[in-house]
């Protein structure tokens, strides 16, 4: 780890997971989890979409707004200096969380914005923006962008647009009947024409964990760039992005105990300083004339306009909360809950779990189909039981199309999830088919 990187305390390589008692104690830090839905205590199993925020995060943002709130990087008065210091301290905290340097962390509106920033940087370079330094990102007709069929739309649609404007070709790693892709199929697609390999570290539908280092080695071996969607990994497991070797990565605040309205782009410093900006305007320039403009170095070259300052402060507090718990312990806790989820759901008649089978490591989520019952009906039934889950295609329509379904029900866990909540879900799902008469129809 480089000397300008905020360091993290080493952790036990085989940590104990959080006990149910510890998860219960952590729940007390989250005001929203104290409520009931109807007559049932809330079991929040939708953290894969948006995680809840502890009091310390809520307090950090409120304290900033009440005592320091001011525009950053553009004022000489006391509040402006304090706000700028808090803003950049937050950047250093988040950088340390993923093993990066402070100049490798760009604030964005969300992870989707971050992925668009990278994709459109490639398109702008192709169309001559950024000069000689940006030429490394230019795409020629027939160059290939390798994705998987499992990608979230945020890591698919931007690359479709890039291909449409540059003549590049999209290539897709296929999925099997469970929605899982294989490393062999991925490696078979990476060749001399590959310029970009973009994929999710953890699938938001199946929980599949990608072999990042293997794909990085293959991509870099042919001179391709690697773009990692870390939205479902950074909040749930230790992630050192420079150690993984990826060139760019994106994750969002609201999935990791932080606020909405802020995302993070990681990029290698040399690449960020060569990538043409996606969004332009104030605060990202050195000199502006009527004829043209010069841009600041990264990360400020990508941070045009008013920034999400209070959100950055709150996200840094969320990072400190996660670090205090221990990311190794968060991962162990969620993976144990995932095993419990998958095994329990797979044992229920008429329930199909998608993704890796029981016994194969996955992140702490499980998506499933209940025979004869639409996912939206499953979600409404569970909601009546006080259990919050996600239903739909989870912004991954091609994956669901490959599975032959329009929607799935997804239960996702976090550090505040208890084993008893998983058991409540399993018990409720066991009654869904009978409630809707689907068990009778199958006879």
Automatic annotation (TrEMBL):
What broad class of enzyme is this? Answer: transferase
Its UniProt entry gives the catalysed reaction(s) as: (sulfur carrier)-H + L-cysteine = (sulfur carrier)-SH + L-alanine
Q: Which cofactor does it need?
A: pyridoxal 5'-phosphate
Q: What is its EC number?
A: 2.8.1.7
Superkingdom in the source lineage: Bacteria
- UniProt keyword annotations, A-Z: Pyridoxal phosphate, Transferase
Pfam families on file: Aminotran_5
What are the Aminotransferase class V domain coordinates in residue numbering? 44-425
Listed NCBIfam families: sufS
Q: Which family does it belong to?
A: Belongs to the class-V pyridoxal-phosphate-dependent aminotransferase family. Csd subfamily.
As for what it does, the entry says:
Catalyzes the removal of elemental sulfur and selenium atoms from L-cysteine, L-cystine, L-selenocysteine, and L-selenocystine to produce L-alanine.
Q: What is this protein called?
A: Cysteine desulfurase
Gene behind the chain: sufS
């Amino acid at each position: 780890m480089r000397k300008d990187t905020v360091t993290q305390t080493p952790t036990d390589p085989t940590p104990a997971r959080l006990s149910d008692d510890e998860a219960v104690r952590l729940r007390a830090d989250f005001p929203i989890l104290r409520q009931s839905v109807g007559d049932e205590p809330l079991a929040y199993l939708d953290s894969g979409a948006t995680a809840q925020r502890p009091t310390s995060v809520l307090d950090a943002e409120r304290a900033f707004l009440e005592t320091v709130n001011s525009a950053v990087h553009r004022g000489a008065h006391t509040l402006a200096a304090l706000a700028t210091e808090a803003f950049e301290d937050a950047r250093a905290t988040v950088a340390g969380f993923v093993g990066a340097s402070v100049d490798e962390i760009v604030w964005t509106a969300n992870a989707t914005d971050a992925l668009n920033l990278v994709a459109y940087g490639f398109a702008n370079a192709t169309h001559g923006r950024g000069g000689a330094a940006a030429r490394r990102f230019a795409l020629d007709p027939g160059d290939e962008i390798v994705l998987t069929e499992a990608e979230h739309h945020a890591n698919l649609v931007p690359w479709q647009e890039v291909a449409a404007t540059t003549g590049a070709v999209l290539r897709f790693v296929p999925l099997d009947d469970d929605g899982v892709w294989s490393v062999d199929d991925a490696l078979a697609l990476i060749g001399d024409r590959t310029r970009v390999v973009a994929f999710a570290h953890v699938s938001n539908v199946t929980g599949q964990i990608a072999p990042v280092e293997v794909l990085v080695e293959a991509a870099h071996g042919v001179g391709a760039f690697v773009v990692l969607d870390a939205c479902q990994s950074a909040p749930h497991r230790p992630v050192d992005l420079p150690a993984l070797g990826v060139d760019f990565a994106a994750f969002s605040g609201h999935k990791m105990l932080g606020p909405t309205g802020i995302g993070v782009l990681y990029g290698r410093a040399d690449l960020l300083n060569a990538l043409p900006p996606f969004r332009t305007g104030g605060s990202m320039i050195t000199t502006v004339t009527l004829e043209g403009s010069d841009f600041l170095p990264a990360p400020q070259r990508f941070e045009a306009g008013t920034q999400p300052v209070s959100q950055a402060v709150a996200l840094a507090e969320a990072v400190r909360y996660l670090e205090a718990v221990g990311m190794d312990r968060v991962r162990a806790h969620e993976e144990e809950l995932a095993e419990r989820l998958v095994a329990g759901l797979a044992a229920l008649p008429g329930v199909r779990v998608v993704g890796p089978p029981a016994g194969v490591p996955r992140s702490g989520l499980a998506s499933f189909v209940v025979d004869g019952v639409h996912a939206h009906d499953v979600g409404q039934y569970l909601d009546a039981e006080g259990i919050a889950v996600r239903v739909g295609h989870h912004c991954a329509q091609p994956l669901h199309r490959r599975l032959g379904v329009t929607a799935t029900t997804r239960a996702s866990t976090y550090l505040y999830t208890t084993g008893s909540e998983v058991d409540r879900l399993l018990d409720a799902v066991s009654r869904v088919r009978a409630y809707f008469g689907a068990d009778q129809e199958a006879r």
